[in-house]
Amino acid sequence: MKVIFMGTPDFSVGTLEALVEAGHEVVLAVTQPDKPKGRGGKMQYTPVKEAAVRHGIPVFQPKKVREQACIEELRRYEADVMVVIAFGQILPKEILEMTPYGCINVHASLLPAYRGAAPIQWAVINGEKVSGVTTMQMDEGLDTGDMIMKKEIVLEEHETGGSLHDKLAQAGARLCVKTLEALENKTAVWEKQGESTTEYAKMLDKKLGDIDWSKDAVSIERLIRGLNPWPSAYTDWNGKVMKIWEAKVVKEQTSEACGTIVRVEKDGFLVQTGDGLLKVLALQIPGKKRMEADAFLRGYPVEAGTRLSSEIIKNC
What we know:
By secondary structure, this protein is α/β, with parallel strands linked by helices. It folds into 2 domains: 2-185, Formyl transferase, N-terminal domain (Rossmann fold, 3-Layer(aba) Sandwich), CATH 3.40.50.170; 209-299, Roll (Methionyl-tRNA Fmet Formyltransferase, Chain A, domain 2), CATH 3.10.25.10. The protein is built from 8 helices and 15 strands. The strands form 3 sheets. Strands 5-2-1-6-7-8-9 form a 7-stranded mixed β-sheet. Strands 10, 11, 12, 13, 14 and 15 form a 6-stranded antiparallel β-sheet that branches. α4 (93-96) links the parallel β6 and β7 (103-107). α5 packs antiparallel against α7. The longest helix has 25 residues, at 161-185.
């Protein structure tokens, strides 16, 4: 099939690669404009643009894809289908209906659950046991189109946002190829979505990582995993921002205030939460790389009774 591919981040790249490997003719890659990065402000390609350039695929980077000039540019390629995965702009009806097979989206959840911008991380944060990917026929709603295929992925005990991202990216790539094959063979079956069983998976921001120690240890541990690697969970330790990369729940309760370091052990330190203790196993402070807690403790004094604080003001 002649495919216009629309995507931007790393999550999209695997699907683009899979379409090329499957023999589809990707006639155009549409991605967000390049952005400056680093202290020098050097313009950086999006991951999809980098992949497209490697394969010799023309690249189109409109600031607003709904502008008429952009729509006419897409029409010029006379594609059979558009594949959209984490593109980053809302498509107008004129684009959704432009090609014979419309726009096929790969979404990183088992729709209708976790519609929205950050389904991967919220699945981990909320303690889901199973996630997955869904291909759907896009409509004018936000992730509300008719579903075509699904693939379930079981979350591991220590699943992070990053590890689930990689699993779903691979699963989504394979599922997209199967979906296009079903469209070509006229064996595809569409299923209407019901009401979502979950809240909208809102976009992540850095403030979400500010640990509220009055919450229970289980919820905080899931937050740490869900926000790994970005934007990361963090707390204030003696005036420094301490990112916490790995922790485990300890079913023990003390009379200490929430956020208090109650015990320091060889391989980590335990913090009182609203319910249970959280043992910090890996962390990072400004100017240093991520390190295991045992290495950190050999170089930095951490004392029982120290209170980790948050921008969130709550009584405990």
